[in-house]
Amino acid sequence: MRNGQVLVKVPASTANLGPGFDTLGMALSLYSWIEMEPVEGNTVVELYGDDLGGIPTDKTNLIYKVAQMVFAEAGVDMPELRIAMYSDIPLTRGLGSSATAIVGALVAANALSGGKLGEDELFQIASRLEGHPDNVGASLFGGIVVSSWDGERAEKVRLEPHADLEVLVAIPAFQLQTEKARHALPAKLDLKDAVYNVANSSLLVAAFASGRLDLIPFAMRDKLHQPYRAPLVPGMSVILERATEHGALGAALSGAGPTLLALVDRKSARKAELEAFLLDTLRAHGIEAETKWLTPDKRGPELTAGAAGNQGSFMERIKGEVNA
Ligand code: HSE
């Protein structure tokens, strides 16, 4: 890397974790890499990876726009940028790919402008841009992030994930727009259902905070969003109802979906059974999916600043870490 370049590795995230709609997030060991530097000529956006077609490469690019917001806030002027991005996080699947782009852009642009904005300011900007703090909080801080957003300010507490927590995701081959999955939700909820979610979300946070993995099967249940989104993901209801019978600690729709997620005890002897159950259930409903075994990411974004003499291409710099 050259002087003046910065490279940020940002974790994917899963939002909601069942009952904690727009509130709970967990960072996952699946990553995007964003490199950024000011240039003299015209802005260029280089995209690497299989799934990034359709992302704009001009100044309407989200990473470019977020970077310019940071420069404006920090009072610096860097109108032309070279941006390179590689991602192992599939788009529009409920694994927080847009949140990683926002967080990566914020961290990179902040580093380029001398680190003028603190973590909290970055979190406020990211929550405002996403409209909810769950994915961006997890990608920005790593671990499990419990957050509350009142439309103006986001507050959060980060929890260290239990060392035995492992995460199985089943990523369907189809995309589901968050907007569509949010439109499926009712405008009003029954009070009983609201209480059910407050109780389970609170218990789930307490279970994570106190290391009580045994409470996850009870607490990771939801009546606020998943029942309404189930018709959008064939096979989802069966998986949510029965994953614990096949060795999961709990199962949830990852964010707005369509990815399904199971929390698993690392020491479980039933991992193959659970994986087969997820894939077979989705296939029986006509859905092809890919599974991945992940762990909670505990570090959040990792920033590398360029130094003289450290050359090579972007892909060479991240080679060995990426799935490509
Ligand atoms: N909490 C959000 C939702 C996450 O479930 O709609 C997806 O952006």
Task: Summarize the structure in words.
Helix content is 34%, strand content 24%. It has two domains: 176 residues, 2-Layer Sandwich (Ribosomal Protein S5, domain 2); 130 residues, Alpha-Beta Plaits (2-Layer Sandwich), CATH 3.30.70. Helix 1 links the parallel strand 3 and strand 4. With 324 residues, the protein is of the alpha+beta class. The strands form two sheets. Strands 1, 2, 3, 4, 5, 6 and 11 form a seven-stranded mixed beta sheet that branches. A four-stranded antiparallel beta sheet has the order 8-9-7-10. The protein contains eleven helices and eleven strands. Bound molecules: L-homoserine.
Compose a concise summary of this entry.
The protein contains eleven helices and eleven strands. It is of the alpha+beta class and 324 residues long.
List keywords for this structure.
single chain; 324 residues; alpha+beta; Ribosomal Protein S5, domain 2; Alpha-Beta Plaits; 7-stranded mixed β-sheet; 4-stranded antiparallel β-sheet; 11 strands; 24% strand; globular; binds L-homoserine; Homoserine_kinase; GHMP_kinase_C_sf; cytoplasm; homoserine kinase activity; Homoserine kinase
